[in-house]
Design a protein that fits this description.
This protein has 323 residues and is α+β, with helices and mostly antiparallel strands. Helices cover 23% and strands 19% of the residues. It comes from Pomacea canaliculata (Golden apple snail).
């Protein structure tokens, strides 16, 4: 019977080209594929015929490949057409110069604030050692690079107007830009004096973030808060800076503001005018206690400004350390 099985196995394998006559072990009649057999099978799969004699490519009939290619072509062409249609609709609806939602409909109801120098965006610490330029040269570079946009030669052209004679808010020419004169930042916070860092009296530059169409609302004598009653001036957004804790308030010392009244109304609203420059205020700390980390919050005041520390609206926080 064993000879019969051997004969049948030999007859069954004779017409096959997929297996060699090499046996796996002594006395075994199981056949092991060789490398040439695998190459032959791969070629048969890549381009060959099936059991019914139909020509196939990678295991799929040519007609099936044709239907597959047509189907995917239609699918991706439809997706691309849909995307192009939506983009065209967006480009037609969206105005590149004016946002669709503006105050009071916009979620941006109150502008935030920002400060310079901040050469490292991952920290809000302004640190320097009196007389050691290596500790504050990056602060000077950051201030220089920002104030360069306010130089006179960069505020020339038909779009700029002289607003030095305006005492209240602007009532016309909202598409024009008021020039901001760097002289308003005072005589102490200038590059020639190292912005105060060389003498241990650092200056910090503050600005209001731009919100399209936002207009500050003025206080009256009846509505002005007690916190700014002594320094408030009409048609100005008053700026106040103070230490956050009792220790900070004790060691922060007197504070100087340039301009002293804060931010004038005449620089608003921002309407994406070409060359717009937001107003600036320099804050100097001439007598901050050395070696003590000060936590400072600066607030800008107007009737329609809400101070929210979590949302960082209407105020800005930074740390100051002078050694």
């Amino acid at each position: 019977m064993a000879s019969s099985i051997t004969q049948i196995s030999a007859q069954g394998s004779a017409p096959s080209v997929a297996f060699s006559q090499t046996t796996i072990g002594e006395g075994s009649h199981l056949y092991k594929e060789t490398f040439q057999d695998r190459i032959r099978q791969w070629r048969q799969w890549l381009a060959g015929t099936d059991f019914e004699g139909h020509y196939v490519i990678m295991g799929r009939a040519a007609q099936n490949w044709l239907f597959l290619i047509i189907g995917y072509t239609v699918l991706y062409a439809s997706l691309v057409s849909l995307g192009v249609t939506f983009m065209a609709a967006f480009y037609w609806v969206i105005d590149w110069n004016y946002p669709m939602l503006q105050p009071p409909d916009s979620i941006l109801q109150t502008p935030g604030m920002n400060f310079r120098p901040q050469p490292n965006i991952y920290t809000s610490l302004v640190y320097s050692i009196k007389g050691v330029s290596t500790t504050y040269y990056q602060h000077m570079d950051h201030l220089d690079s920002y104030l360069r946009f306010y130089e006179n030669q960069r505020q020339q052209g038909e779009n700029y107007i002289d607003c030095s004679e305006i005492r209240e808010r602007r009532t016309k020419d909202f598409n024009k830009v008021c020039r901001f004169d760097l002289i308003e930042l005072g005589p102490m916070c200038v590059k020639q004096l190292s912005y105060g860092y060389d003498d241990g009296m650092p200056c910090v530059l503050l600005k209001i973030n731009k919100v399209f169409g936002w207009m500050p609302e003025e206080y009256t004598n009846e509505t002005v808060p007690e916190d700014i009653k002594d320094k408030w001036s009409q048609w100005w957004m008053t700026l106040t800076c103070e230490g956050e804790t009792a220790a900070d308030k004790e060691n922060i010392g007197p504070i100087s503001y340039y301009p002293a009244n804060g931010f004038h109304f005449k620089y608003f609203p921002f309407r994406n005018q070409q060359g717009y420059r937001p107003p600036l205020v320099m804050v100097q700390f001439p007598d901050a206690t050395p070696g003590i980390l000060l936590m400072i919050t600066c607030k800008v005041w107007a009737r329609n400004i809400i101070h929210d520390f979590n949302e960082q609206t209407g105020l800005v926080h930074f740390e100051l350390l002078v050694d």
